[in-house]
Design brief:
Elements lengths: L3 E5 L4 H11 L6 H9 L3 E7 L2 E10 L4 E9 L8 H16 L7 E3 L7 H6 L20
Parallel strand pairs: 4-5
Antiparallel strand pairs: 1-2, 2-3, 3-4
The chain binds coenzyme A.
């Protein structure tokens, strides 16, 4: 592994899709991801030389609510502290962007096997259930 480089707001749709495919497969379309990148509050990416190793992004409104999305460390780079680094970058973004002296919500959804990772970083589950609808656009 070369020296890792952290980049802010440079993550592209192609890089997003590449990392998504490395862990989950079945990535969304370029058009969807490109739109999402443009409307994300903050994107962080980690490079090993010129190879993308990890990403995460923050959506939200800056005032009250932040939502962490798409935290992905490429499998061969996992277990080296990069996930912790990503969350640290997202939290530093909140510090830079929010109203000083206030408290904000920082939320995310995690599968049960990933919850311990977030718990180590200070997140905890509450009694709220996550409700969602996978909505097919134009089919209402
Ligand atoms: C979850 C993920 C982001 C963690 O990244 P990572 O770089 O491997 O994590 P780190 O090396 O920074 O680990 C930080 C700490 O969390 C722990 N940890 C990481 N993943 C864990 C897991 N699944 N269960 C329990 N502990 C975990 C590490 O042991 C480490 O603990 P330590 O500091 O006491 O040594 C990574 O495994 C990943 O990308 N997985 C696939 C995509 C995914 O599911 N993302 C989450 C979407 S909600």
């Amino acid at each position: 592994m070369e020296k890792l480089t952290v980049k802010h707001d440079e993550l592209t749709a192609d890089q997003f899709i590449e990392l998504w495919e490395s862990v989950w497969g079945g990535a969304p379309t370029f058009e969807q991801v490109d739109l999402a990148m443009k409307h994300t509050l903050f994107r962080v990416s980690v490079f090993d030389g010129d190879r993308i190793a990890a990403m995460a992004r923050m959506v939200g409104d800056l005032g009250l609510e932040y939502y962490i999305k798409d935290v992905v460390v490429r499998p061969e780079y996992q277990g080296k502290g990069i996930g912790r680094l990503l969350i640290g970058e997202l939290m530093a973004f909140i510090d830079r962007s929010s109203v000083k002296g206030t408290t904000v919500f920082v939320e995310l959804a995690a599968m049960p096997d990933k919850a311990p990772f977030y718990e180590k970083l200070g997140f905890s589950a509450n009694e709220a259930l996550r409700l969602r609808k996978m909505y097919e656009v134009g089919k209402c």
